[in-house]
Amino acid sequence: MYLHIDMDYFFAQAEEIRRPMLKGKIIIVCVYSGRTEDSGVVSTVNYPGREIGIHSGMPIAFAKKRAPPADSVFLPVDREYYAELSFSIDAIIRGRCAKAVQASIDEWNVEDEGGEAKARELKEAIKQGVGLMCTIGVAPSPLGAKMAAAKAKPDGLLVLDKDSERKFIEGSLVEKVPGIGPKTAAALNEVGVEKVRDIRKLDPVMLAETFGKKSGAWLHALGSGVYGEGIGEEKEQEEVSRIGTLKEKTRDGYMILAKLSELEKDARDWLMEMKKSYKTMGIIFVTDDLKTHTKSMSFRNPRTWSEDLTKEKEALVNEFLSENPLEVRRVGIRFGNFMDLGGQTTLF
Ligand code: TTP
Ligand code: MG
Ligand code: MG
Q1: Cβ(108) – ligand 1 distance below 6 Å
Q2: pLDDT(217) > 60
Q3: Ligand 1: which residue has its CA nearest to atom 20?
Q4: I need a surface site. Which of 40, 53, 173, 287 has the fewest CB within 10 A?
Q5: For a substitution probing ligand 1, which of 29, 56, 60, 104 has the most ligand atoms within 8 Å of its CB?
Q6: Is the pTM of this model over 0.90?
Q7: Is 84 in the pocket of ligand 1 (CB under 6 A)?
Q8: pLDDT digit string, tens, across residues 311-338
Q9: Residue 344: pLDDT over 70
Q10: CATH of 2-8+80-160, one of 3.30.70.270, 3.40.50.2000, 3.40.50.80, 3.30.300.180
Q11: What is 10-78's CATH topology?
């Protein structure tokens, strides 16, 4: 089975959990362009804000007209904080699923035999680990899983079997299908196709002529109930991380650093073998309450596997210990934001 995980109103939920006093308010996370005080667009908004018609991409000035000032909070995006959360969630998912691919800052595709039980486990582990809700779709195809997740939001879980998946996809409006953009949807509407099941009426030759060979064939397959497999694309690995359990729970910086060195060696071997240099290094801490925390730093110039990081690791571990009172159970190290001869690859 395929699982598609998508965080609920991700940036706004991330703001909610670090400012519990905002509970119940309309939270609008904005990308301010700086030209005037209200220039820019809404990045995302929580559900109370969606109910009054505020949405991603809307100009901030429009959102201000709709939002009652006493119940609304406008906040600037804090991408570093969301990326840290995303990285922690990634560690939680990878720790439990061998086949997992991160698809965006708040989305993962997983192939796992566990199906519904695995989805429940992941929802619980993410909630426990970082305090955030997500929605998971489970289906025989990655497309079905993704559409199921979109349907079940927020804090949802929707499991489809072969029959219900086909009914669900065939009954969906074409514009709801990931991969069908507004232009394609409009062109399909034009020839009388509203729902996926209507695509079957169209001649595959006409589809190929109108949309191109590749997209035409894909649409024809979609109309025929063939949804594809595989969580993807042999995408290049975006980061390397190694996580391990400490011999005993501890707050001793030396014990933590010793474990990290052991894990680091393995990660460095990978960097050397793959000829990657990196621009970010992060440390993962799982505390006694099973919460996952991360600390990371970025370097202006890429570093290679052979460069020493003793000082940087010490600084991050000390910073973490001074901010968190609990004992540490597991630690990990991660290198990311790679550079290689082909240029830079990064997810964010
Ligand atoms: P989405 O997963 O598309 O949206 P979301 O998580 O806010 O809401 P949903 O519960 O419906 O999944 O995008 C993830 C984050 O990406 C979102 O929190 C903010 C950012 N984003 C933008 O900055 N601009 C956009 O137009 C969109 C769609 C998202
Ligand atoms: Mg989301
Ligand atoms: Mg998303």
Answers
A1: no
A2: yes
A3: 43
A4: 53
A5: 56
A6: no
A7: no
A8: 999 999 999 999 999 999 999 999 998 8
A9: no
A10: 3.30.70.270
A11: MutS, DNA mismatch repair protein, domain I (3.40.1170)
